[in-house]
Amino acid sequence: MSLWRASDPLLLASRSAARLDMLRNAGLRVEARPVELDERAVEDEAVRSGAAPDDVARVLAREKALAASRLVPGRVVLGADQTLAVAGGVLHKPADLDAARDQLRKLSGRAHVLHSGVAVVRDEEVLFEDVDSARLVMRDLSEDFLDSYLAEAGPQVISSVGAYQIEGHGVQLFEAVEGSHFTILGLPLLKVLAYFRSEGWVT
């Protein structure tokens, strides 16, 4: 049963299966509408303007939603993005399994912060935007463990910044997590649902 009350389904400006599943599992009618966006160029411009990692996540979410909104007038579009901040730097999705191993080595034994930004747009007007953060502490990882983890988790680890999916084998990497599980998966879902209820779009 759908709890979504708007006339048309929500459009998700993302290829993320995790985000799509979260929204559908929450009872929303939603369709994926990914867009082509030079994320690194958007990020570089935001950083040059002084944006911190959490602001970068918000900007990327907004730009994705705006890009999709230009293609579908009148529709409610949700954009989302995530940044990972560690030791004064930012990590991106690894290009291959060797890069994934390098990221895990960098995260091993230390804390990092995931910032998940979201924006809701209609007719190129930003109706809502926010960001939520979660702090994760990774265990000290041996090379033997990394061998086993990467062999078991497989190439899908390169689809996530940090080279883990905490909803699967990636949970084995951590000793402590502070923050919303939804935020870690890439969407501050509770904030989004609260906004949708305020608009009468969700029962």
From TrEMBL:
Cofactors, names only: a divalent metal cation
GO terms under biological process: nucleotide metabolic process
Chief location: cytoplasm
Subcellular location field: Cytoplasm
GO MF annotation, one: nucleoside triphosphate diphosphatase activity
Enzyme class name: hydrolase
Gene Ontology CC annotations of this record: cytoplasm
InterPro entries named in the record: ITPase-like_fam (IPR029001), Maf-like (IPR003697)
List of catalytic residues: D81 (proton acceptor)
Catalytic activity: a 2'-deoxyribonucleoside 5'-triphosphate + H2O = a 2'-deoxyribonucleoside 5'-phosphate + diphosphate + H(+); a ribonucleoside 5'-triphosphate + H2O = a ribonucleoside 5'-phosphate + diphosphate + H(+)
Keywords: Cytoplasm, Hydrolase, Nucleotide metabolism
Described function: Nucleoside triphosphate pyrophosphatase. May have a dual role in cell division arrest and in preventing the incorporation of modified nucleotides into cellular nucleic acids.
Record's protein name: Nucleoside triphosphate pyrophosphatase
Organism: Azorhizobium oxalatiphilum
